Amino acid sequence: MITRVHSAAYLGIQSYPVEIEVDVQAGLPQFTVVGLPDTSIRESRERVRSAIKNSGFRFPPERITVNLAPAHIRKEGPAFELPIALGILAATEVISAEKLREFVFLGELALDGTLRPFKGAMAIAEGLQNQLPAIFPEANAREAAFYEKATLYAANNLKEVIDFLRGDIRLSRTMPLRQSTPDLKKHHPIANLSDIKGQRFAKRALEIAASGGHNLLFIGSPGSGKTMLARRLPDILPPLPFDQALEVTKLYSVAGLSRNRTGITQDRPFRSPHHSISSVAMAGGGTWPLPGEISLAHAGVLFLDEFPEFRRDVVETLRAPLEEGSITICRAKGNLTYPCRLMLIAAMNPCPCGYLTDRRKPCRCSSVQIQKYQAKISGPILDRIDLHVEVPALTYGSLASEEPAESSEVVRQRVEACRHIQTARYPDRQFKVNAFMQPREIKKYAMPDSEGSKLIEMAMKELNLSARGYYKILKVARTIADMTEEENISSEHISEAIGYRTLDRQW
């Protein structure tokens, strides 16, 4: 007898339907799974066998063949174990095959029949909107409950699902959660911007970057506070809008890194990979590519400390994603595109010893060593960074000062006010910040007055700015003007924006 069970899988962050066919025939006991299953699916045979027996049902000692359709797409992960087990039980008439066709099933089985969560529940739930109702493990159902048009039921074990299909019990339907739900939590960090003494210029640059979504590079001697500043950037960013929060949670679900199994969070991602990372880990990869650090920082921050120590090919991986906001990973078996609209924050020393710009300690590096060290960061990458900021070494007076510094909460309020202005300016865009303005929008919103035009013309000649550098200055100037709620861009805004192009002046 052949039974068919509905299930689903995902490629990238898009889901697709999978039909599981189970054929139970007389013959020597054998359990075969076909349809391009990976190792975890082939191993699921023993888990399915034990789960059925330990749930109090008979496992048929016959020839069992399971086909995962469509057969030309490779399937991976243990989420098909629940539908396979139900297909076997329907083929042996333990449950109704017709009733089985009314639902979509997903879930990993423990040996005792308990349902365990699986990766990619958010991506699959999105694809189930306006489709058949689905039965998920309890841990996944809550995670995927933010899609209002998806009907989800939560179950704890195989026995519960069977009793539900027989009509003996009712499963609780997971009610759709909305933007106002208390499950949308904002993390309140212990670290605060007020912890950092001095560095007013660097803090100003950090606030500008947060206000306009700009990329930022800190350059300074060891111990000047570059890393402390960068790690406090998420604290002054506004919470994630609901649509972006869904997209981020879906990416983490596909990667198997769900940050909050009970729902989604408004915390912006902050990814800080070690400089030994490979280009595959940065961009994403694998036989069926998973999101890399670039995509996991989507709608948040990618922080690269010790920037020149990263391998050249790893850093160059950032070129297209920083411009396009997405990355396409090409493999022999297919291409997948992931979003990666992020803020890049980097920190570096000015030379190998780190003390080239430090007035207290002499630099021990030769000019050749300094040039070689600085050349590790290519011109095209520097050109994509809006703000280049020197972070000077702190004096004893700055460190011992009792003068209170602004807290993250105060700065975040100003950042949110500035972003409200940009939200009204770009109502049709998902990411409503100045950093992602297109040339047509720059001509409309970011052109300076006559004095500002003369100033930027002079800077173009003296600094040999590229067209991208020119546009970066205009975008930063637009953000600076928004911070003071000024509609027109003046020469003062242009002058400050040019002041944040340190490396254009020196390198």
Structure commentary:
- There is one protein chain.
- The chain is an alpha/beta fold.
- It folds into 3 domains: 2-174, Ribosomal Protein S5, domain 2, CATH 3.30.230.10; 178-406, Rossmann fold; 437-507, Orthogonal Bundle (Helicase, Ruva Protein, domain 3).
- It is 39% helix and 17% strand.
- Strands 12-15-18-11-19 form a 5-stranded parallel β-sheet.
- The protein is elongated.
- The protein starts with a strand and ends with a helix.
Any chance you could write out the topology, listing elements then pairs?
Blueprint: E1 2-11, E2 14-25, E3 30-34, H1 39-54, E4 63-69, H2 81-91, H3 97-100, E5 104-105, E6 108-109, E7 115-116, H4 121-127, E8 134-137, H5 138-143, E9 152-155, H6 158-166, E10 173-174, H7 200-212, E11 216-220, H8 226-231, H9 233-236, H10 242-254, E12 270-271, H11 279-283, E13 284-285, E14 290-291, H12 293-296, E15 301-304, H13 312-316, H14 319-324, E16 326-331, E17 334-339, E18 343-348, H15 367-374, H16 379-383, E19 387-391, H17 396-400, H18 408-425, H19 439-445, H20 450-463, H21 467-483, H22 491-499, H23 502-506
Parallel strand pairs: 3-4, 5-8, 8-9, 11-18, 11-19, 12-15, 15-18
Antiparallel strand pairs: 1-2, 2-4, 6-7, 9-10, 13-14, 16-17
